[in-house]
Amino acid sequence: MEAFDAKRTMVIKGIGVSPGIVVGKAYLFDRFDTQVPLYHLNSKTAVAQEVKRFKAALKATEIQLQELKTKLRDLGGLEPLYIIDVHIMILKDRRFIEKTVENIHAQAVNAEWALRITIDKYREIFEKMEEDYLRGRIADIQFVGQGILRNLAGKKRQTAREIGEAVILVAKELSPADTAQIKIDKFLGFATDFGGKTSHTAIVAQSMGIPAVVGLEKITKEVKTNDDLIVDGSSGVVIINPDPEILRRYEGKKKHYLDLKAISIGEASLAAITQDNYRIEIGGNIEFTEEIPSALEHGADNIGLYRTEFIYINREQLPTEEEHFAHYRSIVGVPGLAWTTIRTFDLGGEKFFSDPKLGREMNPQMGLRAIRFCLKEIELFKVQLRAIAKASYFGKTRLLFPMISGLEEIRQAKQVFYEVRDQLAADGIPVGNDIEIGIMIEVPAAVVIADALAKEVDFFSIGTNDLIQYALAIDRVNERVTYLYEPLHPAVLRLVTQVVKIGHAAGIRVAMCGEMAAEPNYAMILLGLELDELSMTPSAIPRIKRIIRGSTLEESKKLLKKVMTFSLASETRDYVEAYMRERFPAEFLINGNS
Ligand code: PEP
Ligand code: MG
Q: Does residue 381 register a pLDDT over 80?
């Protein structure tokens, strides 16, 4: 079967959502699979022992299958017994065993990894089969493989985190549950079939500062575990089994990218002040408190968005007030960060929460999400608000409510907050008295009534990820409509302009914390809008700061005025890209067609 050793170079284009270039081995993640560690064996004895370990696991799996068969026979019924016989046959298949042993020898790798390579190769062959029934048999091979893996794991307690080598994760899509389950820190980059610029995969990759390309549609079909892979998160390209020439070019590109990044980081602590002295505050968006060092290192002036829903992810029990407080306390008052913007949890939509009580929604993006959920589950909401009120005693804190679509919601949310804060104070517990309250502007209705909302709050923060989704009616995680996701759509620019104007007329600050704020091409446009703050994934900060420091407010306003005359998004995009490339040639080299 020649398919076993064929290795051809293939390029797949998707959406680059986290910049950088990585070259490494692929690891195909199957949600129903167990994670497989990779490590190299450094002596002949170790290789021989590994083969023994593999054979012992085969034996153990066979015994378990025989026991299962006996149990099922006692219960009656014929079909399952036949299936188990098929599984035992696979287990004893000479080629299956030999191929894995050969992989252990040839690559000097552990049995789990060697087995995974064999299974992936079988999968590739079976998937090409015409007959549905035969194609479906790969499930049996995977089932047997999992049994062996379990036995291997039982004998060896080491985990991927302790001994594994870092690999590139290839998956259909990563849900928050997946990222909690896998040893996320073992990955060099991500490549997924689904997802868009604001999908969970994108957010996690950005916060880890590793390259990622999503929306590749068929990457899981084309890639096998152990394939060589290049992930270029800057241009959205993934190359499978690159030939030596491509590999060499990409090693060069990677170095160039890292050099540029190093220069930017060096200057990142400087304030974002334009040549004509307009200052814009640059915040960091974080999901985990562990990201604070990265935010500081990349030059965040403050935390502009802490997505607290990540505290709830993949848990059996709800977090207690003390747990919430511990998280908030570790951010509030950190030296070097002027303030911390804590957004109350935004669960629902694409965001995951393991409470089965919530059930499934047909259209979760428009469902019981964020503030709607909080106001329904007031007690749960109060737990979080109490912790925020207590933490605000220790440093400048801003409280941010997501998905506000009407006055009632913000009034009610504020009332609940003041209630818990006053109660804490009455109980003699120290709380901050000068907490600022703001709302996310991410529902078009909030833009329309921004004048009324502005009277209720101290600041606005424009969430372009959702604002674009709702304004243009595009599901932000549906790759089929990604092509319509256009921050430069005239409707989006007009909405944003309106929010800034209304906010400033009411005397409140206006920030932007959606992904739009992180795009270097848009930096001058956002400057021209006179936004007070931009907040973004930390690794994007150095470039944005550099561009702002190299610009003037005056020219940015001119650029904005010009693009506001265009009626096509494509005109704006072409114009802005050409303008930025000419104005900042060094910044746009890596994204260019070099
Ligand atoms: C947004 O919608 O732009 C935003 C920042 O919030 P999130 O991405 O968490 O929905
Ligand atoms: Mg949002």
A: yes
